[in-house]
Amino acid sequence: MSAARRAVGDRIVHKEFPPITRHRLALYCGASGDHNPIHVDIDFAKAAGFPDVFAHGMLVMGYLGQALTDAVAPSRIRSFSTRFAAITQLGAQLTCEGTVIELIEQGGEKRAKVALTTKDQNGEVKLAGEAVIAL
Amino acid sequence: MVDQSAVGREFTPVTARVEPGRLRFFLDTLGETNPVYRDEATAQAAGFAAAPVPPTYLFCLEMMDATVPFEFLTALDIDLARVLHGEQRFDYHAPVVVGDTLTFHPRVTSVTDKKGGAMTLIVVETGVTNQSGVHVADVSRTIVVRNARPS
Protein backbone atom coordinates (compact mmCIF):
# COMPACT_ATOMS: atom_id res chain seq x y z
CA MET A 1 0.00 0.00 0.00
CA SER A 2 2.09 2.91 -1.25
CA ALA A 3 0.17 5.90 0.00
CA ALA A 4 2.26 8.29 -2.10
CA ARG A 5 0.55 7.02 -5.25
CA ARG A 6 -2.90 8.21 -4.24
CA ALA A 7 -4.57 10.34 -6.89
CA VAL A 8 -7.80 12.31 -7.02
CA GLY A 9 -10.61 9.97 -8.03
CA ASP A 10 -9.07 6.83 -6.51
CA ARG A 11 -11.68 4.78 -4.71
CA ILE A 12 -9.56 3.54 -1.82
CA VAL A 13 -12.27 2.46 0.64
CA HIS A 14 -14.87 -0.22 -0.04
CA LYS A 15 -16.34 -2.63 2.49
CA GLU A 16 -19.68 -4.34 3.02
CA PHE A 17 -21.09 -5.33 6.39
CA PRO A 18 -23.62 -7.96 7.49
CA PRO A 19 -27.24 -6.94 8.24
CA ILE A 20 -27.70 -5.09 11.54
CA THR A 21 -29.48 -7.25 14.11
CA ARG A 22 -31.07 -6.47 17.47
CA HIS A 23 -28.32 -8.56 19.04
CA ARG A 24 -25.65 -6.37 17.45
CA LEU A 25 -27.30 -3.26 18.90
CA ALA A 26 -27.42 -4.85 22.36
CA LEU A 27 -23.75 -5.77 22.11
CA TYR A 28 -22.88 -2.27 20.94
CA CYS A 29 -24.59 -0.74 23.98
CA GLY A 30 -22.24 -2.66 26.25
CA ALA A 31 -19.16 -2.33 24.07
CA SER A 32 -19.52 1.42 23.57
CA GLY A 33 -20.95 2.59 26.88
CA ASP A 34 -23.88 4.18 25.02
CA HIS A 35 -26.85 2.86 26.95
CA ASN A 36 -29.52 5.04 25.38
CA PRO A 37 -32.55 2.68 25.50
CA ILE A 38 -33.80 3.97 22.14
CA HIS A 39 -31.42 1.48 20.48
CA VAL A 40 -32.56 -1.67 22.32
CA ASP A 41 -35.89 -1.11 24.06
CA ILE A 42 -38.77 -1.17 21.56
CA ASP A 43 -41.23 0.24 24.14
CA PHE A 44 -38.97 3.24 24.73
CA ALA A 45 -38.45 3.74 20.97
CA LYS A 46 -42.21 3.67 20.30
CA ALA A 47 -42.91 6.11 23.13
CA ALA A 48 -40.35 8.42 21.51
CA GLY A 49 -42.27 8.26 18.22
CA PHE A 50 -40.24 5.69 16.28
CA PRO A 51 -41.66 2.46 14.82
CA ASP A 52 -38.84 0.35 16.26
CA VAL A 53 -35.35 0.58 17.71
CA PHE A 54 -32.62 1.76 15.33
CA ALA A 55 -28.85 1.63 15.10
CA HIS A 56 -26.53 3.87 17.07
CA GLY A 57 -25.04 6.42 14.69
CA MET A 58 -21.69 5.63 16.24
CA LEU A 59 -22.03 1.92 15.40
CA VAL A 60 -22.42 2.94 11.77
CA MET A 61 -19.50 5.37 12.05
CA GLY A 62 -17.52 2.55 13.68
CA TYR A 63 -18.10 0.45 10.56
CA LEU A 64 -17.02 3.36 8.38
CA GLY A 65 -13.88 3.74 10.49
CA GLN A 66 -13.18 0.05 10.06
CA ALA A 67 -13.53 0.34 6.28
CA LEU A 68 -11.21 3.36 6.39
CA THR A 69 -8.45 1.69 8.42
CA ASP A 70 -8.62 -1.41 6.21
CA ALA A 71 -7.32 0.92 3.50
CA VAL A 72 -5.27 3.47 5.44
CA ALA A 73 -2.97 2.75 8.42
CA PRO A 74 -4.50 4.22 11.62
CA SER A 75 -1.34 6.29 12.22
CA ARG A 76 -2.03 8.20 8.97
CA ILE A 77 -5.51 9.42 9.84
CA ARG A 78 -5.48 13.09 10.85
CA SER A 79 -9.22 13.70 11.08
CA PHE A 80 -12.44 11.77 10.57
CA SER A 81 -15.86 13.38 10.50
CA THR A 82 -19.35 12.55 9.42
CA ARG A 83 -22.88 13.81 9.20
CA PHE A 84 -25.63 11.38 10.14
CA ALA A 85 -27.93 11.85 7.15
CA ALA A 86 -30.61 9.28 7.98
CA ILE A 87 -31.53 6.78 10.66
CA THR A 88 -30.11 3.29 10.08
CA GLN A 89 -32.83 0.68 10.53
CA LEU A 90 -32.65 -2.90 11.72
CA GLY A 91 -31.66 -5.24 8.92
CA ALA A 92 -29.69 -2.58 7.06
CA GLN A 93 -26.85 -4.00 4.98
CA LEU A 94 -24.27 -1.26 4.89
CA THR A 95 -21.64 -0.52 2.27
CA CYS A 96 -18.88 1.95 3.09
CA GLU A 97 -16.95 3.72 0.37
CA GLY A 98 -14.30 6.38 0.15
CA THR A 99 -12.77 8.31 -2.73
CA VAL A 100 -9.83 10.69 -2.78
CA ILE A 101 -11.20 14.14 -3.63
CA GLU A 102 -8.24 16.45 -3.05
CA LEU A 103 -4.48 16.36 -2.45
CA ILE A 104 -3.30 19.06 -0.04
CA GLU A 105 -0.30 20.26 1.96
CA GLN A 106 -1.16 20.88 5.57
CA GLY A 107 0.74 20.76 8.85
CA GLY A 108 4.00 20.34 6.96
CA GLU A 109 2.97 17.12 5.23
CA LYS A 110 1.28 15.92 2.07
CA ARG A 111 -2.26 14.85 2.79
CA ALA A 112 -5.36 13.68 0.96
CA LYS A 113 -9.01 14.40 1.62
CA VAL A 114 -11.18 11.33 1.29
CA ALA A 115 -14.96 11.66 0.82
CA LEU A 116 -16.74 8.87 2.68
CA THR A 117 -20.24 7.45 2.45
CA THR A 118 -22.20 4.70 4.10
CA LYS A 119 -25.26 3.49 2.20
CA ASP A 120 -27.81 0.79 2.90
CA GLN A 121 -28.94 -1.94 0.49
CA ASN A 122 -31.38 0.51 -1.13
CA GLY A 123 -28.63 3.01 -1.83
CA GLU A 124 -29.86 5.45 0.80
CA VAL A 125 -27.02 7.52 2.26
CA LYS A 126 -26.81 7.06 6.03
CA LEU A 127 -23.51 8.76 6.67
CA ALA A 128 -21.67 11.33 4.56
CA GLY A 129 -18.23 12.17 5.85
CA GLU A 130 -14.64 12.99 5.22
CA ALA A 131 -11.22 11.89 6.39
CA VAL A 132 -7.91 13.68 6.03
CA ILE A 133 -5.03 11.23 5.70
CA ALA A 134 -1.28 11.71 5.59
CA LEU A 135 0.35 10.40 2.42
CA MET B 1 -35.53 24.72 25.42
CA VAL B 2 -31.77 25.10 25.35
CA ASP B 3 -30.68 28.66 24.53
CA GLN B 4 -27.49 30.65 24.04
CA SER B 5 -26.86 30.77 27.77
CA ALA B 6 -25.65 27.16 27.47
CA VAL B 7 -22.70 28.18 25.28
CA GLY B 8 -19.51 27.87 27.28
CA ARG B 9 -20.98 25.42 29.80
CA GLU B 10 -18.40 22.86 30.86
CA PHE B 11 -19.15 19.44 32.25
CA THR B 12 -17.36 17.14 34.67
CA PRO B 13 -14.09 15.89 33.14
CA VAL B 14 -14.08 12.13 32.53
CA THR B 15 -11.00 10.01 33.08
CA ALA B 16 -10.91 6.68 31.24
CA ARG B 17 -8.29 3.97 30.88
CA VAL B 18 -7.85 2.11 27.60
CA GLU B 19 -8.35 -1.43 28.90
CA PRO B 20 -7.52 -4.35 26.59
CA GLY B 21 -10.56 -6.47 27.51
CA ARG B 22 -13.05 -3.67 26.92
CA LEU B 23 -11.33 -2.80 23.66
CA ARG B 24 -11.55 -6.44 22.53
CA PHE B 25 -15.31 -6.44 23.25
CA PHE B 26 -15.66 -3.36 21.02
CA LEU B 27 -13.58 -4.95 18.23
CA ASP B 28 -15.60 -8.18 18.43
CA THR B 29 -18.88 -6.25 18.32
CA LEU B 30 -17.84 -4.51 15.09
CA GLY B 31 -16.34 -7.67 13.59
CA GLU B 32 -13.03 -5.81 13.45
CA THR B 33 -10.23 -8.30 12.68
CA ASN B 34 -7.42 -5.92 11.63
CA PRO B 35 -4.36 -7.30 13.51
CA VAL B 36 -3.01 -3.81 14.23
CA TYR B 37 -5.73 -3.46 16.90
CA ARG B 38 -5.33 -6.97 18.33
CA ASP B 39 -1.69 -7.99 18.11
CA GLU B 40 1.00 -6.05 19.96
CA ALA B 41 3.79 -7.09 17.58
CA THR B 42 1.78 -5.92 14.56
CA ALA B 43 1.00 -2.63 16.32
CA GLN B 44 4.67 -2.09 17.16
CA ALA B 45 5.70 -2.86 13.58
CA ALA B 46 3.24 -0.12 12.57
CA GLY B 47 5.00 2.34 14.88
CA PHE B 48 2.73 2.22 17.95
CA ALA B 49 3.93 1.63 21.52
CA ALA B 50 1.00 -0.80 21.99
CA ALA B 51 -2.24 -1.63 20.17
CA PRO B 52 -3.95 1.60 19.05
CA VAL B 53 -7.67 2.28 19.44
CA PRO B 54 -9.96 2.39 16.37
CA PRO B 55 -10.97 5.82 15.01
CA THR B 56 -14.29 6.18 16.87
CA TYR B 57 -13.32 4.61 20.19
CA LEU B 58 -12.60 7.92 21.95
CA PHE B 59 -16.34 8.61 21.85
CA CYS B 60 -16.97 5.33 23.68
CA LEU B 61 -14.32 5.77 26.36
CA GLU B 62 -15.83 9.04 27.48
CA MET B 63 -19.29 7.47 27.81
CA MET B 64 -18.07 4.28 29.48
CA ASP B 65 -16.33 5.99 32.34
CA ALA B 66 -18.59 9.00 32.90
CA THR B 67 -19.76 9.01 36.51
CA VAL B 68 -22.97 10.70 35.37
CA PRO B 69 -24.09 9.13 32.05
CA PHE B 70 -25.45 11.70 29.59
CA GLU B 71 -24.54 14.47 32.05
CA PHE B 72 -24.74 17.20 29.41
CA LEU B 73 -28.31 16.22 28.58
CA THR B 74 -29.38 16.20 32.23
CA ALA B 75 -27.55 19.45 32.93
CA LEU B 76 -29.30 21.16 30.00
CA ASP B 77 -32.66 19.54 30.83
CA ILE B 78 -32.86 17.63 27.54
CA ASP B 79 -34.98 14.46 27.29
CA LEU B 80 -32.86 11.55 26.03
CA ALA B 81 -35.80 10.34 23.92
CA ARG B 82 -35.70 13.60 21.91
CA VAL B 83 -32.04 13.45 20.95
CA LEU B 84 -30.48 12.34 17.67
CA HIS B 85 -26.83 12.39 16.69
CA GLY B 86 -26.34 14.97 13.94
CA GLU B 87 -22.62 15.10 13.27
CA GLN B 88 -19.41 13.73 14.72
CA ARG B 89 -15.82 14.77 14.21
CA PHE B 90 -12.44 13.56 15.48
CA ASP B 91 -9.13 15.41 15.08
CA TYR B 92 -6.19 13.21 16.02
CA HIS B 93 -2.99 14.83 17.30
CA ALA B 94 -1.10 11.90 18.89
CA PRO B 95 -1.57 8.11 19.18
CA VAL B 96 -3.87 6.57 21.80
CA VAL B 97 -2.95 3.01 22.74
CA VAL B 98 -3.88 0.26 25.20
CA GLY B 99 -2.73 1.22 28.70
CA ASP B 100 -3.22 4.97 28.22
CA THR B 101 -5.29 6.96 30.71
CA LEU B 102 -7.22 9.74 29.02
CA THR B 103 -9.04 12.75 30.38
CA PHE B 104 -11.98 14.28 28.48
CA HIS B 105 -12.99 17.94 28.94
CA PRO B 106 -16.43 18.55 27.37
CA ARG B 107 -17.94 22.00 26.81
CA VAL B 108 -20.80 23.46 24.79
CA THR B 109 -19.53 25.59 21.90
CA SER B 110 -22.71 26.42 20.02
CA VAL B 111 -26.50 26.30 20.18
CA THR B 112 -28.48 26.86 16.97
CA ASP B 113 -32.23 26.76 16.44
CA LYS B 114 -33.48 25.21 13.19
CA LYS B 115 -36.84 25.04 11.47
CA GLY B 116 -38.39 27.83 13.51
CA GLY B 117 -37.46 26.19 16.78
CA ALA B 118 -38.63 22.68 15.87
CA MET B 119 -35.05 21.50 16.30
CA THR B 120 -32.04 22.74 18.24
CA LEU B 121 -28.48 21.80 17.26
CA ILE B 122 -26.02 21.68 20.14
CA VAL B 123 -22.27 21.28 19.60
CA VAL B 124 -20.20 19.80 22.41
CA GLU B 125 -16.43 19.92 21.90
CA THR B 126 -14.19 17.72 24.01
CA GLY B 127 -10.42 18.08 24.33
CA VAL B 128 -8.65 14.84 25.20
CA THR B 129 -5.31 14.59 27.02
CA ASN B 130 -3.33 11.52 28.06
CA GLN B 131 -1.49 10.57 31.26
CA SER B 132 1.55 12.60 30.17
CA GLY B 133 -0.50 15.72 29.52
CA VAL B 134 -0.25 15.33 25.75
CA HIS B 135 -3.24 16.76 23.88
CA VAL B 136 -4.07 13.63 21.86
CA ALA B 137 -7.36 14.55 20.19
CA ASP B 138 -10.32 16.85 19.87
CA VAL B 139 -13.75 15.31 19.61
CA SER B 140 -16.81 17.26 18.48
CA ARG B 141 -20.38 16.04 18.51
CA THR B 142 -23.48 17.77 17.23
CA ILE B 143 -26.71 16.60 18.76
CA VAL B 144 -30.14 17.34 17.37
CA VAL B 145 -32.90 17.95 19.88
CA ARG B 146 -36.41 17.41 18.49
CA ASN B 147 -38.32 20.06 20.42
CA ALA B 148 -41.87 19.38 21.56
CA ARG B 149 -43.22 22.34 19.59
CA PRO B 150 -41.81 25.37 17.82
CA SER B 151 -41.38 28.37 20.06
From TrEMBL, chain A:
Gene3D superfamilies: Hotdog Thioesterase. Pfam families: MaoC_dehydratas (PF01575). InterPro entries: HotDog_dom_sf, MaoC-like_dom. Residues 11-117 form the MaoC-like domain. It comes from the Bacteria. SUPFAM superfamilies: Thioesterase/thiol ester dehydrase-isomerase. This is MaoC family dehydratase. It comes from Bradyrhizobium septentrionale.
Automatic annotation (TrEMBL), chain B:
InterPro entries: FAS1-like_DH_region, HadA-like, HotDog_dom_sf, MCH/BMMD. Residues 5-138 form the FAS1-like dehydratase domain. Transmembrane segments: none annotated. SUPFAM superfamilies: Thioesterase/thiol ester dehydrase-isomerase (SSF54637). Gene3D superfamilies: Hotdog Thioesterase (3.10.129.10). This is MaoC family dehydratase N-terminal domain-containing protein. It comes from Bradyrhizobium septentrionale.
